[in-house]
What we know:
The structure is a homotetramer.
Chain A: E1 5-10, H1 14-25, E2 30-36, H2 40-47, E3 54-56, H3 59-64, E4 70-73, H4 80-90, E5 94-97, H5 104-117, E6 122-125, H6 132-143, E7 149-157, H7 167-186, E8 190-196, E9 212-218, E10 223-229, E11 237-244, E12 247-251, E13 258-261, E14 264-268, H8 273-292, H9 302-321, E15 325-326
Helix pairs in contact in A: 4-5, 5-9, 6-7, 7-9
Amino acid sequence: MVENLRVAVIGAGRMGADHIQRLHTRIHGAEVAAVVDIDLDRAKAAVAHIPGAQAYATAAEAYESGDVTAVLIATPGFLHEVALLEALERDIPILCEKPLTPDAASAWKIVEAEQKLGRKRIQVGFMRRFDQGYVQLGGLVRSGELGELLMLHCRHRNPDTPPGFTNEMLINDSVVHEFDVIRFLTGEEITSVQVRLGKATSKAPSGQHDPQHVLIETASGVLVDVEIFVNAQFGYQVTTEAAFEDGIVNIGADGGPTVHRAGRWGGEVTPGFEARFGAAYDVEVQSWVDAALRNEIGGPSAWDGYATAACCEAGVEAQKSGEKVAVVLNEKPALYGSFEPAQGGAQ
Amino acid sequence: MVENLRVAVIGAGRMGADHIQRLHTRIHGAEVAAVVDIDLDRAKAAVAHIPGAQAYATAAEAYESGDVTAVLIATPGFLHEVALLEALERDIPILCEKPLTPDAASAWKIVEAEQKLGRKRIQVGFMRRFDQGYVQLGGLVRSGELGELLMLHCRHRNPDTPPGFTNEMLINDSVVHEFDVIRFLTGEEITSVQVRLGKATSKAPSGQHDPQHVLIETASGVLVDVEIFVNAQFGYQVTTEAAFEDGIVNIGADGGPTVHRAGRWGGEVTPGFEARFGAAYDVEVQSWVDAALRNEIGGPSAWDGYATAACCEAGVEAQKSGEKVAVVLNEKPALYGSFEPAQGGAQ
Amino acid sequence: MVENLRVAVIGAGRMGADHIQRLHTRIHGAEVAAVVDIDLDRAKAAVAHIPGAQAYATAAEAYESGDVTAVLIATPGFLHEVALLEALERDIPILCEKPLTPDAASAWKIVEAEQKLGRKRIQVGFMRRFDQGYVQLGGLVRSGELGELLMLHCRHRNPDTPPGFTNEMLINDSVVHEFDVIRFLTGEEITSVQVRLGKATSKAPSGQHDPQHVLIETASGVLVDVEIFVNAQFGYQVTTEAAFEDGIVNIGADGGPTVHRAGRWGGEVTPGFEARFGAAYDVEVQSWVDAALRNEIGGPSAWDGYATAACCEAGVEAQKSGEKVAVVLNEKPALYGSFEPAQGGAQ
Amino acid sequence: MVENLRVAVIGAGRMGADHIQRLHTRIHGAEVAAVVDIDLDRAKAAVAHIPGAQAYATAAEAYESGDVTAVLIATPGFLHEVALLEALERDIPILCEKPLTPDAASAWKIVEAEQKLGRKRIQVGFMRRFDQGYVQLGGLVRSGELGELLMLHCRHRNPDTPPGFTNEMLINDSVVHEFDVIRFLTGEEITSVQVRLGKATSKAPSGQHDPQHVLIETASGVLVDVEIFVNAQFGYQVTTEAAFEDGIVNIGADGGPTVHRAGRWGGEVTPGFEARFGAAYDVEVQSWVDAALRNEIGGPSAWDGYATAACCEAGVEAQKSGEKVAVVLNEKPALYGSFEPAQGGAQ
């Protein structure tokens, strides 16, 4: 009988707590062995209801316990580099929440460290690749049944932003998902980014220019426009419209029951990313666990993390200049193979 | 050059006023020559803005003016019989708002009078036959491309009812449209009606049992259920779902812009029959005018008026007994031909 | 640490195999311990890939192994009675696929046996109670925010039927789900059933009259019409439209990506019940496992199985007579409490 | 009684023939008096079924007949300038199909000529202002109920293009409608245009780069992206999505009956602009006739024609350079007033 993975979750904040609950109640083949948080009380609270799980203040202590065979990193992005290097040294399966690291240079260091190891240990948490809509759209692209994909129109709308959400975070935390999805759908790298700041909403916090218009191009010339609008008030919405040579595809519409009541018909707007992508997170983590038990990864690789970090850097520069900014990547190491994304597949 | 029809509109109430406006501003080939209303002041008000139109208290006076070559009857139903007989005597084109007359016996008298005349002069105001949705559904039935039509599910919902709206009017004024549409879509006569009074809304006026469930069968066995719900609060809605051997068709959904606003997405509910069927009324009257200028009718005939009156009688009886009540018709006079409905075609 | 349930699955046919896969790969807190099938080879094939699971030809052998702490019954309905009595003797948690048993008399014997035991051990496999659409509609009923529920319109369409599917199975295997859902949504027992056989499709196998129209009434007078159409060719579709005093709700529409291609726009029709209700099955079994680990049930009870069996009996009689047939139930034992369905809750 | 307009239609090609039919059969208050076409046989064929209408080879002859009191110009755009100046000399109501003229310099000459006349005689044929969807969206903008309008996403898709359709015509004949609609919706002038040529379809004729991505900005900074895709194969589609401070609005979705047939559900794609905008053309011409009978115009003015011509010039330049190109306008003459578009209103 294959042993279950014994997972250390690093970071017990919003995403970490969500993943702990997921591993403990919904994911087959894995158990929470440890929760690591610099705030030890928060770690202790997180394991209180989980028999056999321990709380630690550092990852090192967790690893030393001898009870950890895999790690899920859910700290803020600036702490990822150290955690990743530490986990790579242990040569254990790693699921790292996006971004891999906050910038292309540090992301490249991770890629290099993994190369030295000689096998893919890191899966990056771009969960949209596991969302049914993107999976189906990707399938349509690869089937060729509608001809070549020519353009994408992406909308990313949040009702509002947490305190301290900056213009740069619009790119690094939100548009980063579009960067990954564009690469996933087209199977191509992104070559340039342009950002236009137009009319701004009065509902954004001071210092934030919202919405913004991002125009992206891929290697073969696929143009992608993104409306990133993070104080859109009405609800949460992520949709993509794809123009092919022979047809148009739309994904991401709000579903659920439709109600006719006085004067209006319709349904409920999705309130947030948990409702929109909750199932995708479950499938993502299950895919990681299944692959990890075979010593593989089951989703986006460190290369995907590096490539999107380079896009984000170009995006932030474009945001400032208003000009088209080229995205330049290092040569792709052989370890990451050619570009053949399976369902949420590693590259 | 063909002379325009000079139309006398009898009845200047809600429907009459609507038709006067339609003839005066939107219909080619016809002009309002006279408005007849027992309330002469109402008639005078109606013609005030129409050059060349006169007001009268009786139809006889209008006809005697020598300026009338066609008539549109828009009085309450119980006044139709006299007005129809008077117009038939003049042998002029007649557009008669539904119902033809309020009961089968009087409707049959009209059929007999028209037969004596020897040509179809009466078109009945079942405007749904000119509605794009019903026309397209009828086309699908007749094309046979989805196989045989097997069942229909009809919903007829009003926000509320005018004072004095009785249980019998639920059948005679509302379900009567479904009777006509079922005959139009199936090309068959109706053979039985059953009415079930279930749980009632608390929003209906005293004495009215609302909603009601009507189960109808046609000659070949097509079963039709109708939800008639006339105090449905939220808005106006008329939809039909058709089950064919090889597919399902839905018509009548609310359209228009969709709006996402805080917490809800959707569109506006249709507020009333004017918005839902306004275009159908225009097409209906235009069709009548075009046919009348060729001495024909361009829509449902007196036979259709008679057959639906017989359905209504059976419906009201079924409403009281809760049993299945057979619909029995006189033999169809040759004048009305076989059953081949064209777009909104006469039969 | 709570021990996982060790489940014996009885019956390794279509539904059984589906549940074995579910328990083995997706459900937390339970493991497949045994597969029982009179065809021992089929049982052996089913456990071949499951470490620690054994195959048996009879349930008795499985119980005697000492490794079974819960049972899932997925045999054809006529074998349920014996399997249920045997499992009740063991006093272990039971998940029994619908129907509880094929008729009201045998279902009542099960209810009596469970009463003797003195606690609810049986959960019946009405998985629609765990479907997101029905859960949300049930929530709207109970919230009262749209006023009283007045009518339901249900459509149940299959592309075709397996060999040997009879008229009675239309009621016992298909409409039975509507009986349960009506009881779940209204929180009321069903009082009468009427079945009308109208125009039949040419696509049904000989001896089957399809579609049929079922008209159902609940204790407070809620009327429900059901189109049951099991050779509908185009695909699988289960929808419900609910008319409330203050609004209308629709659930069950086909979702997924919409595609515009030459001449047509739209999406894919659901191909079968696995796609439509696959997630509901997962939630159902998980709910049963979670409750079983607390010695409770987490869904429809034996009483629900008995009450729907009585509805089916009335339905089959109504199918033959064309008349309204009353549904008469024994007095409800105290064990099953009053009618307060929670999400998919037991009653 | 007001005399009907006696209209000379100049140009009996596709659009001209359509307008002749419209004036002859559907528009109240106007009649076709003359058809002018350099191909006299085509003009004769067009009037053959219209009592009282004459055919001419030149507009001058039509005017000299003394039977013409208004003119509708439907020739190719490069012939508009001469026809407009000739009609302005007559001081009669003019409905001029878009574009006003093919470039900003000649359009300005028309504006100057009309100013000398001292009253607005020219209405330009931007029929989208009369489309129900744009009217409703414009109403939402002006009501302010969703806050400020921030971004627009426009899609303009044709199944294919007629022979000789050039890259410049993509802007001048297709995007010109978006230029007008943006001005209509925002009530602002356009300040810059950028065009990006990305991945091209293999279905476009040689020499045409299709689709193209147009990024437009208005005076207050509203950003608008346009996908112009004129060989989109599947059908005709014009949609707009508007992002407001407090909500999102979508117009232009395909409507009509939805059909479930083997494997797919959905409706018919709109085949062409006649089906999508036929009703808008009727309303547009009726609005012009009604206004003309009062010596006014009832839609977009010569100023609107000039302003969109300037946008087109910038668009074609942007198409070639790939850079953002500013749109510069002459000062607006007092005759055209301030920017207060009513329903399809003149400015």
